[in-house]
Design brief:
Protein name: HEPN domain-containing protein
CATH superfamily: Nucleotidyltransferases  domain 2
Number of domains: 1
Helix content: over 70%
Pfam family, one: HEPN
Organism: Thermus thermophilus
Order of helices and strands: HHHH
CATH class: Mainly Alpha
Keywords: Plasmid
CATH architecture: Up-down Bundle
Structural class: mainly alpha
Length: 97
């Protein structure tokens, strides 16, 4: 796959992740916590798959833990730092932070 095609595909996955995140925020405002959690997981999975594709790797499966574990170490570290920032923001929105 060419670099250009790979980056377009990664962008497509990232756009889907962003859509899931926005939908999750809308549901959170309505107190729909289970649905919000599901969409947060979906957004995380799609964002990680976008990263894999952008790196020229083939993402496999739907396990967030596996997608993180199997990333190159530097990319995994950055992804975990970003996830921690997002989780802190969610805790603040839920009044737990």
């Amino acid at each position: 796959m060419s670099v250009e095609k790979r980056l377009r595909e990664a962008h497509r996955w990232l756009a889907q992740a962003w859509d899931d995140r926005e939908a999750g925020e809308a549901l959170l405002e309505r107190g729909k916590h289970a649905q919000t959690a599901f969409l947060a997981q979906q957004a995380g999975e799609k964002a990680l798959k976008a990263l894999w594709i952008a790196l020229g790797l083939d993402p496999w499966g739907q396990s967030l833990a596996r997608l993180l574990r199997d990333l190159p170490p530097e990319e995994a570290k950055k992804a975990l730092e970003d996830a921690q920032t997002i989780l802190k923001a969610v805790e603040v929105r839920l009044g737990k932070g």
